[in-house]
Write a structure and sequence with these properties.
It is built from four helices and eight strands; from the N terminus they run E-H-E-E-H-E-E-H-E-E-H-E. A hairpin with a 2-residue loop joins strand 6 and strand 7. The chain starts with a strand and ends with a strand.
């Protein structure tokens, strides 16, 4: 299974380069709300914590149109032709990393754009 992984949890500086790369790839603008990866703050109120899609499939189970399926590499992808933009997948995501902007929905496809953008090498694409 191919997925995005947080390799160096403590190295994140919250620079948000990963968020910028992701939102620009999907929506052609930097807006952290349009990124499929989020940098949150740990319970201590200071330490950044990258939150990524773990390819759990809860989004696929919630989709009434069956627009989300798992490919041969284990990555859940959205079929844009079947997706009606209802947002049920975003509601079901336990990590809050599915983006809904108007009638367009996007999720992590383990493309690696955020990995390349991270100056601290916090992220990696992993074959599990």
């Amino acid at each position: 299974m191919k997925k995005l992984n947080v390799a160096k949890k403590d190295a994140c500086m919250a620079c948000k380069e990963c968020e910028a790369a992701c939102s620009e790839a999907f929506y052609k603008e930097f807006n952290e709300d349009y990124s499929c990866i989020h940098i949150e703050v740990k319970k201590d109120g200071e330490t950044p914590k990258p939150v990524v899609c773990v390819q759990c499939g809860k989004c696929a189970k919630a989709c009434p149109e069956e627009a989300i399926t798992q490919n041969a590499k284990g990555v859940y992808t959205i079929n844009k032709k079947k997706c009606v933009g209802c947002g049920k997948c975003a509601e079901a995501c336990p990590f809050g990393v599915i983006v809904k902007k108007e009638d367009k929905v996007s999720k992590c496809i383990a493309c690696g754009i955020c990995v390349k953008a991270c100056p601290m090498e916090v992220l990696e694409i992993k074959e599990a």
